């Protein structure tokens, strides 16, 4: 397909490459020029302007957060001039923004699909993302080949444009919950003479197989938080997104509140740019370990 | 081997049967007579007294909690008269009790092994328990054939008799944490138009494979808590054990505190005899769902 | 003095009347006309425009929140055309807004004083407010006669324009904390056979004299939350302001997080328009009382 | 009256002296002999045995906690041999213990009054305690002259022997709540440029007059925790008593859970023997101040 691609951070770059490898034609745009040049060297063509990235059959964007998406893409002139039939927004944004975005796109005759992903940059590079998608079924089916090139599985979560973002916000809240839980358990174990690594070995081979305990657990037992696969400060952004989404519907999430406080403490103690696993330093500080 | 077996509740019965099936000779004792009769019909011999169950090469016990273990087994007369060389205590008890028990056994020349398990009665019946064991290595090796008959894997967690109990207490704390986390996420999803079952489907096939999300998640999305595979009131006992173990070493566990409050609320609302998954009713009540 | 007054809600009206009674000359502005007419009947003159309310020696404003202050008053044209030498902002706004406001006022040669108050409308009517003020000392001294007419005491909290708002945000957080604490204690007492009113009687005459326990405590023991002296939804606004102010400096406030969750639950259960004391319904729901 | 007095710690000594000063006849008992000698020098007579302290018209006890009361006083032989008509237990014990004690006393024809107090040793020395009393009215009236000698006011909280202990447990929970709340607010203020002492000055002269903010607030703003007027470790005992009392009736107290975790952290960081105000170190650690 003829694809415009906006946002070439670590995730965006990896995803764009997968599309090139699958034989799609890519017109790429990024705020800074270096990533554009790199992709062009691999076969993409450069979009001189954001509008040029919307002069395609379908446009995919992978930007940082609500603020950037709102400022760059929710622009009447951009959307009204777009040739693209569908815009696939793969960023982690708030469900509220997704609803506003879908409405604005509809006013300009443009389809909107929310498709945030689970997986870090290395997972994206391997084409193994889990893609959480919601929007009109016909349009989801139409862009399925693109998702197939980027992910191992695409979840169709219904027509509501916000549904995929609700799922993504929930998943990230659960991810941080699991890390806080193991952090507390590791301190409980260590203070009582059991090596956290021994506890982790039991857990990953019994109750908690899967990537979360295995990956974050190892960083916690080693208290090694660099390089940051997923920055702790971004974890605070995601937990805050969960709290705000919940509050907008009068839903208390006491566990998310606890996570927010643990993350703030970790940032106060200088761990904001380290990996999310550094939330475990808060548990250690509590126990004076 | 020639084994004495004390405590024929749902778990104990299933474990004893596995030993019989593996060709071991069993002398069984229970407070009430019916389970004894059932096991005798399957090839065990009855122990008329507790002391008779300690007239064996090795004695295994699977009792309810600290109180029962303390009252029945930490008895000078019983231990001093025992022929058994080793007592394997497979109950979920406090690390503190394990230390006191090991000391008392040693005074009477009896080995003590802590070996609590992960898995419900159906898992025990299939011989698929995860056995968390600690104590002297030579004795652990000696009783290994018994563990092999009852479990899919035995974890040697060191010589400290309390280590296995620390691991078990930690694992149960993490189990309840995961259930609370998904309960909150399910409410967040539902209040924002995403079916909790759709969220669960994503999670069990991406971040959170394994038995916890799959098993408890289904009960939560269906709000169906009977029959109780693991009673909620027992979950409160386990979380309290984690809090007490932590407090004894001045370790704050704010997530365990939150779990305790959620469980207490569920009990106040009448869910104490239902499955642990009913902790999710607390999240729903918070949001007036 | 020749005073412009902006914002004639319940608080603003009562404060403006105190100034009239003390002999000051008032030019009053409000979004809706009725309160203006009422004050004019008592001797004020009407300001046809916001700008006219800044055509005075000093302008006092008493608006709802950050959003309204930002939209109406942080206006380059308004501030550059003002004759007033000083603008006294008595609303409960964020410290961040106070800093931005002070800077913008300075650019237009206008002094800025932050002076939020402690006390409800009946306290304002009696001239018994506690006024928390910060800003340049000379200007604070100059407007002191106005504060004297409105309050029982003015606290000079330093030159930093944000200081008074920090104090106000902290005080409101402490107010809600005390109410949550007594709410939990009242349930503890009731569930154990002690009437909450008897407990309250002890407390107000020993550890906790003063208006908070006496006033809110009575509403809690009677579970009577109307009319709302201070709306619960406003309490959530204030606690959120404390959390946001804290988060901006990486300060975790776990007690404020707990209050936010209790307030959200109360709103989910339909108590948002009732008095703040209705936060106690959350404690009762937790215990199934 | 002819009074037996058991327990001459700092509180007991001060209270016994007030009784002597009021002209009552005292027979005093203590585990260690020095305090007995001191009181005898002031006019008391020594009780050679605990039983001798119950050979009086009325016996007052002021012991440390449930464990000590249970071990020393809930003794069939002691109670059956007592001449005293009434035993007034002024210790802070659990409501559950009060009920068991009242029943056991009744079986031996002895009246039981629960009368814990609010106030530290200096308050006791001045005869200014607040006495929280419950039990049979006739007996309460009979011992009123003793209470009048020790306190500024006696609160009759009903016939239920546990009621006074419920009130005391609740009051102490509220005391620690207020200290945690101000601790968090002080950090919020400091991190935002407002001196905590300035905030405290506002609060004690507006919303929060009374001894709690004035006394503990000063220690917190000065971060000065010695000598300990009330040891932090005792504060943990009291909060745990509140949590246990609540849990026995399925009442969640999330604020008490938070206090417990803050206190445990303070103890882990070495503040257990300092004044309760040192709970504020936990808030400072959270914010890396």
UniProtKB/TrEMBL annotation, chains A, B, C, D:
Domain 3-hydroxyisobutyrate dehydrogenase-like NAD-binding positions: 163-279
Molecular function GO terms recorded: NAD binding; NADP binding; oxidoreductase activity
Pfam family, one: NAD_binding_2
6-phosphogluconate dehydrogenase NADP-binding domain span: 2-158
Catalytic site positions: 168
Keywords: NAD, Oxidoreductase
Gene Ontology biological process terms, A to Z: organic acid catabolic process
Assigned protein family: Belongs to the HIBADH-related family.
Protein name: Oxidoreductase
Organism encoding this protein: Kitasatospora cheerisanensis KCTC 2395
